[in-house]
Write a structure and sequence with these properties.
It is built from 22 helices and 49 strands. By secondary structure, it is of the alpha+beta class. Strand 1 and strand 2 form a beta hairpin. It is elongated and about 125 Å long.
Length: 925
């Protein structure tokens, strides 16, 4: 392995020894770490022999390591390759023909093979890895080479003992003119056709006749053993030995297995296998080909202010693609094969905590969750959850559904021993998963890290006629043999893979500080909300129309059914004003033609059963005068309803699945089976179609005069398009969505409300609803935290799911107080009986007659407290005792909530059962 910068020679032995011995997370100091980058805030060190890295925060003298120090001694659970993987900077999985998965990692398959190089540049360090043995071991073993090459090989060896060992394993021979000398006769060798006018001699040896015969047998036998087309030495001709007349050659002796292993271990340090194969070819010997199971991955490390950025440049990623399988390992000899690289785990052991550590790991499950280090749940499944949910264009989801919470944020973290780190997945987030495991599950360490799907794949059905088709047909029987196979995206993701690591120490080593840091990162350049002691907004969703099937001449026909007309919206707003609720954010769902599942939105026409466009424009103007923010709803990611000649063509406007069929999303469940009902689906609109669709919709929408818009699918979904002639991968699809969000919030000057809180939406959003209030409560998790709300606080209006959909209103009120979430209700004006036997029975709990007074009361209860903190960032969240939490805001106001049925006394504060306590900055309650 070569290092290409003089900087790599700067070993700060004494300073490094003292620092490492003082580091709380490090065992014995590793004197081989070398300082390579220093930006004044952080220092980056690297081990030249293993490419392990370490980061030192200068102000706190805290250290973080890519691999546990002394992992060879500390790893006691894993063995062999699994143990060595603890020393890896990444691992990858790939598929071989037959859809079998295989894995490689940077330590076992690159570092131990000395197939990597380190390059130190002015502002970054690059480590270039080749994974998979490039040549078979025999490619490093000279069988017969010329004396000059042999002597050069010996000179290149550093050890005299190695040099002596290698010299002893070779015999030096030459061809010299026979003259009048008598040549020995050897069985199965025609000495005239093989040696011509020459005889074989051993240099510097005086051999008797028997020894000369043995020498010929040995030399020609070695030639025959290196030719697959020679059965024995009788097939050797002068063509193979002619080079021996030009210069002496070294021929390897017969070796025991252990001598062969030792010899290869030595020669591979100085032999170029490609050059050796050329020499063997000149000697008339068979040559060996490079292995095709070889991958190339580059890691780039860069210090950026107070963080470390780790990047995998995708344009330098290499994997076997249409490689010639010369030896027929995977296919017929001489055929071609592709081994698609599927996933890459990046820095899987960065900051890993050992079996004695105390602290927790942070994962972005729902609102956020903590996994306590060494929590004893080694028998529980590891945490492994997609960021942003599933790409529906991968194909129909045929699993039994478990309904976990969404992971909206591309973050993770770990805290131990008064220090911690947080990872932010900046690029490749749409194909990432966060993986966390406690010690004892797969290793002796607690780990949390990202996994990237480099080449997405899906399982598709293959239908083939059975071998006995003709016999079946003759008997009137038709049977299909149905199997499954993997289908792969034809290329890797278009964007790089990158994550930013931020470091915390002392009092800042907690998830509250991580939320603050991510909030500043996510909303950089955006102004926060005005923090004023004013009434909080009430977020109210009113549903306009739904579709139902009604008979017409005996044929079922889709018609719209009004639930809340335009005029009823105005009446309900006037009623709220009369109840001292003047600050309202109104979401109007189902106003477009077709209702909630509206028609293709290439226009902006009000469903006629609700009113007219003129009436809706008048409503928007009225609401604006009253100071009520208006958010009419629309969805651009799915075609929710089918109408002839609506401008949508499945061939050109729908996404394609991996198998190139038209993309559809099954949205209705077969409740007893917990599986999707394949009879009900929406078309997935191709991301390439969305900009044009927005072009058509926006001008007509702006004529209505609304200052806001509700995008009900962009906050939770991002889908690819796998069409053969125009792939849009998930990263490119996300960029298209961001461009439209930027357009709507920027040039169109619209306030955007979204459902769900995928991170790429948040910088453009005004309000977010249906924010998860808890995690999925996976077995491995220990504690829910409102990390998502902490990130949004101070910059966005946000609310949990509608309060009228919750089973326990008091619990929901407390959760809103704990998280700073606004009151949110979803109502209809017509009696809920109208929903019976419709596809919208989920709205049954939305009848305003039941909820109107409850909503007004809940609003005023929350307003009395949250008006003091709305617009203030959450700076700290703590779980004080079981089911008792405290949230502190930037203005020093704190809210304590008690979820217990009984009263508690915490830090001298008495809190009623299912009660709360607010403390002002001056300590007043």
């Amino acid at each position: 392995m070569q290092t290409t910068s003089s900087t790599m020679r700067l070993c700060l032995w004494t300073v490094l020894l003292v620092a490492l011995l003082a580091a709380p997370t490090r065992g014995a100091a590793d004197h081989s770490l070398e300082l390579v980058l220093d930006n004044g805030t952080l220092e980056l060190y690297i081990h030249p022999d293993t490419a392990e890295i370490a980061v030192r925060q200068k102000v706190s003298d805290s250290w973080w390591f890519s691999n546990p120090p002394n992992w060879e001694q500390l790893e006691t659970r894993a063995r062999g390759r699994a143990k060595n993987r603890v020393g890896a900077q990444f691992s990858l999985t790939y598929f071989i023909p037959g859809d079998e998965s295989r894995s490689l990692d940077s330590y076992n398959d690159s570092v131990l093979l000395d197939q990597f190089s380190i390059e130190v540049l002015e502002d970054q360090v690059r480590v270039d890895y080749i994974l998979g043995e490039q040549w078979p071991l025999n490619a490093y073993l000279p069988a017969i080479i010329d004396i000059d090459t042999f002597e050069a090989m010996l000179d290149a060896l550093e050890s005299d003992a190695d040099r002596e060992f290698v010299r002893d394993k070779y015999t030096i021979v030459a061809l010299e003119p026979a003259g009048d000398s008598e040549r020995v006769s050897v069985h199965n060798v025609d000495k005239d056709s093989v040696f011509g006018e020459f005889r074989l001699v051993a240099l510097d040896q005086d051999l008797d006749e028997a020894q000369r015969r043995q020498l010929v047998e040995f030399a020609l036998g070695r030639v025959a053993s290196q030719r697959t087309d020679f059965r024995d030495r009788s097939h050797v001709t002068y063509a193979e030995v002619a080079p021996w007349a030009e210069a002496p050659v070294a021929i390897v002796k017969d070796l025991s297995n252990w001598d062969r292993e030792d010899l290869i271990e030595i020669t591979r340090t100085v032999v170029d296998p490609e050059e050796l194969q050329a020499i063997h070819a000149r000697m008339g010997l068979d040559t060996l080909d490079q292995n095709i199971t070889v991958f190339r991955v580059v890691l780039e490390y860069q210090l950026d202010g107070d963080s470390l950025v780790v990047r995998v440049p995708m344009d330098e990623l290499e994997y076997p693609k249409q490689a010639v399988d010369v030896r027929g390992r995977y296919t017929a000899a001489g055929g071609t094969v592709t081994l698609p690289l599927q996933t890459l785990d990046l820095l899987p052991f960065f900051g890993a905590a050992d079996v004695d550590a105390q602290g927790y790991m942070l994962v972005p499950d729902g609102s956020g969750a903590l996994i306590h280090l060494n929590n004893g749940k080694s028998d529980a499944p590891i945490y492994n959850h997609r960021v942003y949910g599933r790409d529906q264009s991968l194909g129909p989801d045929r699993r039994v559904l478990t309904f976990p919470q969404h992971s909206h944020l591309p973050i993770f973290g770990l805290v131990q021993a008064e220090q911690g780190f947080m990872g932010i997945i900046e690029e490749g987030d749409v194909v990432s998963q966060v993986r966390a495991a406690v010690a004892g599950r797969t290793s002796s360490f607690n780990t949390v890290s990202p996994t990237f799907t480099v080449i997405p794949m899906a399982r598709v059905d293959l239908v083939a006629q059975t071998d006995s088709y003709d016999g079946q047909r003759s008997r009137g029987i038709w049977l299909d043999a149905i199997t499954e196979a993997n289908v792969y995206q034809p290329r890797p993701m278009d964007s790089d893979l990158a994550m930013r690591l931020l470091f915390f120490h002392g009092d800042d080593a907690n998830y509250s500080a991580m939320a603050t840091a991510y909030r500043q990162h996510l909303f950089a350049g955006r102004s926060p909300l005005e923090a004023e002691a004013a009434d909080i907004p009430l977020i109210l969703e009113l549903t306009g129309a739904i579709h139902v099937n009604r008979p017409w001449l005996g044929i079922p026909r889709r018609v719209s059914e009004p639930l809340t007309s335009v005029q009823q919206v105005q009446t309900m707003m006037n009623s709220l004003l009369e109840h001292d609720i003047s600050r309202i954010q109104l979401r109007y769902t189902g106003w477009l033609e077709g209702g909630v599942e509206h028609f293709y939105p290439n226009g902006a026409n009000v469903d006629p059963v609700l009113g007219s466009n003129r009436e809706l424009a008048a409503l928007a103007a009225s609401l604006d005068e009253l100071g009520i923010q208006f958010f009419p709803s629309v969805g651009f990611l799915y075609r929710y309803a089918d109408r002839p000649w609506d401008g949508f063509g499945a061939r050109q406007d729908a996404s394609r699945f991996m198998d190139r069929t038209v993309g559809i999303y099954h949205y209705r469940l077969k409740e007893p089976l917990q599986m999707f009902d394949t009879d009900y689906y929406f078309h997935i609109i191709s991301p390439r179609t969305i900009p044009g669709l927005v072009d058509q919709f926006l001008p007509r929408f702006q004529e209505l005069g609304s200052s806001g818009i509700y995008l009900h699918d962009m906050g939770t979904a991002v889908n690819s398009d796998f069409r053969r002639d125009g792939l849009v991968d998930r990263g490119q699809a996300k960029q298209i969505l961001e461009d439209q969000l930027r357009r709507l919030a920027g040039s169109a000057d619209l306030n955007i409300m979204v459902s769900g809180a995928n991170a790429y939406v948040l910088p453009y959003a005004h309000t977010v609803v249906n924010v998860p209030g808890q995690s999925s409560e996976f077995l491995i998790s220990d504690q829910d935290i409102p990390f998502l709300q902490m990130v949004m606080s101070g910059y966005l209006h946000y609310a949990l799911e509608p309060m009228n959909y919750t089973g326990n209103l008091r619990q929901r009120l407390l959760r809103s107080l704990e998280t700073g979430s606004l009151p949110y209700f979803s109502l209809i004006a017509e009696p809920s009986l109208i929903l019976k036997d419709s596809e919208f029975a989920r709205l049954f709990a939305s009848d305003y007659r039941h909820w109107w007074a409850v909503m007004i009361d809940a609003y005023h209860q929350l307003n009395d407290v949250l008006r003091h903190v709305h617009g203030q960032p959450i700076v700290r969240h703590e779980v004080l005792t079981p089911n008792v939490a405290r949230t502190t805001f930037a203005n020093s106001v704190s809210i304590m909530v008690n979820y217990n049925q009984f009263p508690v006394m915490v830090e001298g504060n008495y809190i009623d059962g299912l009660g709360y306590l607010m403390k002002e900055a001056n300590g007043d309650e």
